[in-house]
Amino acid sequence: MDSFLRDENKKLSAMLQTLSEAMWNVNTTGEQKWQITEMEAEKAYRQYVSDAHRFEKIQALKQEVKSNSLEARQIERLYQDAFSNQLSSEIIHELVELSSTLSNQFNTFRAKVDGKAVTENEIREALLNSTDVTEREKIWHASKQIGKEVESGLLQLVKLRNKAAQSLGYKDHYEMSFELAELDLAEVFAVFEDLVKQTNEPFQRVKAELDDELRKQYGIADKELYPWHYHDPFFQEAPSVPGTDLTPHLQGKNIEQLTIDTFSSLGMEIRDLLAKSDLYERPNKNQHAFCLDMDRQGDVRVLCNIQSNQYWLETMLHEFGHAVYDKYVDRDLPFLIRTHAHIFTTEAVAMFFGRMAKEEEWLHKFMGLSKDELTTWMPLQQKMQQRKMLIMARWIITFVFFERELYRNPDQDLNRLWWKLVKEIQGVEPPKDQDYPHWAAKIHFTIAPVYYQNYLLGELMASQMNNYILQHVSSEIFTEKTGQFFIQKIFQPGDRTDWRGLIQGATGEPLNPSYFVKQFVL
To answer: What is the mean pLDDT of the chain?
Structure first.
């Protein structure tokens, strides 16, 4: 077994480094040569892990290995990956090529308004600041143009993913993805349904207040509000409570330096990671943001498109939360488990730090706001944070509920189903034209299938960590004691155990949604 695991760690490390390099280059350049390289690297990887004889060996070792050992965890990871790839070469190649083509469409697409190409930053800025309702509607529709571009290919990809999952004995790709990600589908949906109930009254109150503010802002008293009246294309972000936008305070400040200072206060060095990152927008570059661990040896990179505003400040803190997790995983662990315990545990860390730009301690320590300023600032900021979390939770639940139905039946009227859920859960009135794939404009359906639930699970864990730190570690967040909690209890364990074991070991109890409710709802 030892020699088999050594060989697997070595082979998979080399293959994933090649794939990571191609992924980074295609996202930073949009060049076709890197798209081809990425496709070929992914095909080679998936072809290797799909080998039937190798899978038989892994199955046999799974029966022999001592439970709760590092060897057992490695074998489990090998099994999950190999099992999901027990597919024909034709299906693997088709999945990779279609996914890569659609991904590159998103990277290189630029919406058009009155025949002029606009970036996502420009769309975001217009929806954030314009009070011209006609212009807003035009900009909002432009933000959805990519949905029409990718709809056909995306539905083809969904059906192909289902075909692959069904060949492995599952009802659909969604069910398979949950099981292989060590998530209980019924448990997660029960938690989300309960959160809808627990947040219903405060959400309705917050949204009514927000709608009144927007009507006054646009001068449209007593009129119905539509999606373009909100401050982002999907109503996933909360418009600022008047007086809480940090953007004016960021003028003359360096967002990179603020990020460095934040993590340095915890005893975490990120300047080496910044040096390899790609942080500013340019043509053909991916317009979103992500963190990529290139080799699980310390080469961790962040892609952003920074502008001097609160959105990109929070995004930088979020992405470098991912980055420090990857950097500080125990390097002595075997490659296979030298990573986070679960995708939602790294999301939890990223969300924890992304929240900090609205916290009193951070605003005083890093932005230099005085105690007097904060006395008047913080009640509004706390109101803003509750608004943000309630709106974010409703958005995630809408996405998750829709995606489950997308995989259950991709031939149903998805466009109307989307708006039905948006109205029921987010309380947003659909546009008159619902026969358009507005939903498909969200990139995650294409490049990160069955991923979105991890954002809300991450928020729940972030609140639980926040409570534990303040109760048991330090009365202040930005201390080296807090940094050591993260490094020793969250980062260094890597994937030694599953996410349940990690959370229990770090906080002394299982994942508990009550901390999120207490922090943002009650």
So the answer is: 95
For the chain, the structural domain boundaries read: 185-520
First to last CA, the chain: 52
**Cβ neighbours for 395, distance < 8 A, ≥ 6 positions apart:** 234, 235, 236, 426
Cβ neighbours of residue 458 closer than 8 Å, sequence gap 6 or more:
344, 345, 346, 347, 348, 350, 351
Q: What is the pLDDT of residues 211-243, one digit of tens each?
A: 999 999 999 987 889 999 999 999 998 887 888
Distance between CA 425 and CA 395 in Å, rounded? 8
278 DSSP 8-state letter: B
In this structure, the number of other CB atoms found within 10 A of the CB of residue 518 comes to 12
* 451: helix, strand or coil: coil
- Output phi, psi for 113, to 5 deg: -120, 120
Q: Give the DSSP letter of residue 434.
A: -
Q: Which amino acid is at 313?
A: L
> Could you please report the per-residue DSSP string of 236-269?
-SPPPPTT---HHHHTT--HHHHHHHHHHTTT--
Q: Does the pLDDT value for residue 516 go beyond 90? A: yes
Residue with tokens 């109307």: 416
Domain 185-520 fold: Neurolysin; domain 3 (1.10.1370)
Q: Does the predicted model carry a pTM greater than 0.85?
A: yes
Tokens 């996410």: give the residue: 499
